[in-house]
Amino acid sequence: MDELLQRIIRLEAAEASRKLACTYATALDGVDLELLDTLFTEDAVLEVPTQRFQGRAAVLGFFAEAFAAATVTKKHFMCNLDVEVTGPSSTHMSSYFLYTFAGQDTSVLGWGTYVDEVVIADGAARFRYKSISVDVHADVRAGWATT
Q: Which residues pair with 88 in a beta bridge?
């Protein structure tokens, strides 16, 4: 019975991590800083190319600035979510993402990779670490395969 309980705990941790990824995409697409605030631990770390943000306030500052700079309709899609349970309340997750930006003067298609460390407490999953690596960010009017 103990083995079955451990399997259930691992499955619930993996599912909570996947749900966190989906909620993250919803927050990005909805430009919802309040929702993003609930998705990161107080000591969260965000790494993007050439920058590192330490602490939830700094992470949210990054997103607030990104939201202000890109006032376009966007959608994020995640796939190939690979979740490894690393402890009773933690996971390591990697995934691919695809995003679209559409505005009056832009039509962007891009993709890349997320690497996340997730902690689960009181049934809620939160990012302790997130790395965002963009492989392609191209204006499709110029041809996405040209970059």
A: none
Burial (0-12, 13-18, 19+ Cβ within 10 Å), 25: middle
**Residue linked to tokens 């392609």:** 136
> In terms of pTM, does the model score above 0.85?
yes
3-state secondary structure of 30: coil
From CA 131, how far away is CA 110, in angstroms rounded? Answer: 16
84 closest CA partner among 117, 125, 47? 117
Instruction: Give the chain's domains with CATH numbers.
Output: 2-146 (3.10.450.50)
- Give the separation between CA 33 and CA 79, rounded to whole angstroms: 23
CA–CA distance, 85 with 144 (Å, rounded to integer) = 36
CA distance 94 to 86: 13
Which pLDDT tens digit goes with each residue over 23-59? 999 999 999 999 999 999 999 999 999 999 999 999 9
Phi, psi of 138 (to 5 degrees): -135, 145
